[in-house]
Amino acid sequence: MSTFVVFDLEFTSWPEALERDWGEPGQLREIVQIGALRLSEDCAVVEEYETLVRPVVNRELSPYFTELTGIGQESVDRDGVSPAEALSEFLGFCRGQSVLSYGNDMVVLGENMGWARARGEQLKHSFLDAGFLNVRPWLNTVAPSTAPMNVGRLWEVLGLPRPAAGKEHSALFDCYSFAAALKHLRDHGHPLPEGCVR
Predict the structure, then answer these.
(1) Which of 41, 60, 163, 171 meets the CB 3.0–4.6 Å disulfide criterion with 176?
(2) What domains, with CATH codes, occur in the chain?
(3) Are 158 and 184 in contact (CB under 8 A)?
(4) Amino acid 110: pLDDT
């Protein structure tokens, strides 16, 4: 059975960080949560992956981030794993797959891999073991109403049932929203672009 992966990241943020492209001193886009779904060709969920990650530079989550995502400091301190462990597990989950994002989350993934390696941490898998692809331009073209929406609201703007428990800006919920949008478009005559399923 051919499968592919959709993923989403939640990473450290502060008020107006997006508008300033995380340009303030010390504001790094450190991954705090990774969510991913392995999907079959018909966009049915085969497997899910989710983990919390302990930031290294900004160990204390901003109140803005916690309010946005619902992820609290206590949860990250208790359940979070090291960046190297999380990245290794996630890249293993993606190995040999096409890996789709709604936006350039693979850039943030690459930044975090670079920082881990600069700290001397070993990663068990390579970024090159999977084919990462931002399908937001395609999705926004075939469904123009989605263009201003974040990934966690795709289901809503397309008039679909709520795809899972949770809320937007939770990485796994956002993946379910993404998957629901892809299935909806596929079922309405818009198959994924060439190369998205291996």
Answers:
(1) 163
(2) 3-187 (3.30.420.10)
(3) yes
(4) 94
What's the CA angle centered on 8, arms 183 and 77, to 5 degrees? 140
- Mean pLDDT on 157-163: 96
In sequence order, which ranges of the chain are alpha helices (DSSP H)?
Answer: 63-69, 73-79, 83-94, 105-118, 136-142, 154-157, 171-187
Alpha-carbon distance of 147 to 169, in angstroms, equals 17
Looking at residue 169, the DSSP 8-state letter turns out to be: T
Can you tell me the distance from the alpha carbon of 80 to that of 39, in angstroms, rounded to the nearest whole number? 25
At residue 37, the 3 state secondary structure works out as strand
- Would you say residue 198 has pLDDT above 80? no
pLDDT average, residue stretch 5-27: 92
Contact 174, 168 (CB under 8 A): yes
Does this model's pTM top 0.85?
A: yes
pLDDT tens, 56-77? 999 999 999 999 999 999 999 9
The closest of 154, 174, 151 to 71, measured between CA atoms, is 174
The distance from CA 154 to its chain's CA centroid, rounded to whole angstroms, is 14
**Which secondary structure element, helix H or strand E, spans residue 132, and what is its range?**
strand 131-134
